[in-house]
Amino acid sequence: MKTIVSTGPQTDLEVVHVKSLSAGAGAVVVSANAIGVGRVDLIMRQVIPGTLIPGVEVAGIVIETGPGVDPQWLGRRVFARLQTGAYAEQVAVSSDALVVLPAGLSFEAAVASGINSLVAHLSIAKAHVTAGERVLVRGADGGIGHLVVQIAANIGAEVLDSSLESPPASADVVIDLVAGSDTGAFVGQLNANGRYVIAGIASGMPPADFASSLIGDFRLSRSVATLSLDTVSKANLNSAAAKIFAEVAAGKLKPVVAHTLTLEQAGEAHHLLAKRRATRQNSSYALIRKDVPIKTIASARMSKEEYVARSGPGRPWFRCRIPNCPSPKGRALKRIVPTSVIWQSCGMSCGLLTTGTLEWK
């Protein structure tokens, strides 16, 4: 079978053929149909020395079960989490890291939500977001962020635009996937009893004194927390993933899928991720499928070129649920009349930057 191997951050990814896998005790072998590619894979290539098969998530079909595993797993469509090793035609994984995919949910959609949606869902849960609260999402147009926005909006929260040059006047909750030197300014915008959850550091670590304003006015009872999936039990991760997949299958949560690549093009996917990082564009997440073209999860907010390539008159696109979105709330897009002059944004949920006039049903 084919695997994709990294020997360091400055070397090209290589296609390496190895023997097919066998399932050990408590494990299964999954034939991969879709593999998630994200920034975590670039980080692993930086920090893990020596030979590495990248990748932490895969969706496919169980083709072998090991001793001690319920044989009913055989033939099931599943999503699986791994520490590394997902860039391969087959993966061996513990059966307690599997989640059954609901009928109607594609392999692409499974990894398009996957790890990203787990971070999004658990960040919202950790912040105890409730209907009517003002929620600011830093990194709202990224792979995790656009899912945070949708989940918060589905709860009934008011989602604030974090793309402005300065933070908004106030927020009840901040979900921060960016961090960096500006973190303290956003912490200072929390209302009384406000909650700040850091679930990513795309712009680097925050300053040592980023939360000093909380102590300076402790009577407001504001708090800062961090979130890592490493601290969540497998059972809770599985339960959360099952709930998320059901919402994706029902159309309540819509991960963005944009491009197609093959397994052999994993290096190109990493180049795209690194390029977007270097130019401060939103991160892109790829799905690598075996034997067929695969789809890439681009950032929730597409570039002009990406949009033009995919859109056209008469093509339905999205239904925006974000409060204060400039689109007519609750109405589906009928078509986009292309022009070269109009450049509109339809808010963070759909995240579209268009080059056309929006017409609504």
Plain-language structure description:
The chain contains nine helices and 19 strands. Residues 278-361 have low confidence and may be disordered. Strands 3, 4, 5, 6, 7, 13, 14 and 15 form an eight-stranded mixed β-sheet that branches. A five-stranded parallel β-sheet has the order 9-8-10-11-12. Strands 1-2 form a two-stranded antiparallel sheet. Helices cover 25% and strands 27% of the residues. The chain is globular, with a radius of gyration of 21 Å.
Based on CA inertia axes, which overall geometry fits? globular
Order of helices and strands: EEEHEEEEHEHEEHEHEHEHEEHEEHEE
Average pLDDT number? 78
Percent strand: 25-35%
Helix content: 25-40%
Which stretches are low in confidence, meaning pLDDT under 50 for 5 or more residues running? 278-361
Question: How widely separated are the two ends?
Answer: 49 Å
Q: Please outline the major beta sheet.
A: 8 strands, mixed
In short:
The protein is an alpha/beta fold and 361 residues long. It is 25% helix and 27% strand.
Outline the fold blueprint.
Elements: E1 2-5, E2 14-17, E3 27-37, H1 39-47, E4 57-65, E5 77-81, E6 90-94, E7 98-100, H2 107-127, E8 134-138, H3 145-155, E9 158-160, E10 171-176, H4 183-187, E11 190-198, H5 212-216, E12 223-226, H6 234-249, E13 259-262, H7 266-278, E14 285-289, E15 294-297, H8 304-310, E16 333-338, E17 344-345, H9 347-350, E18 353-354, E19 356-360
Parallel strand pairs: 8-9, 8-10, 10-11, 11-12, 13-14
Antiparallel strand pairs: 1-2, 3-4, 3-6, 3-14, 4-5, 5-7, 13-15, 14-15, 16-19, 17-18
Helix pairs in contact: 2-3, 2-6
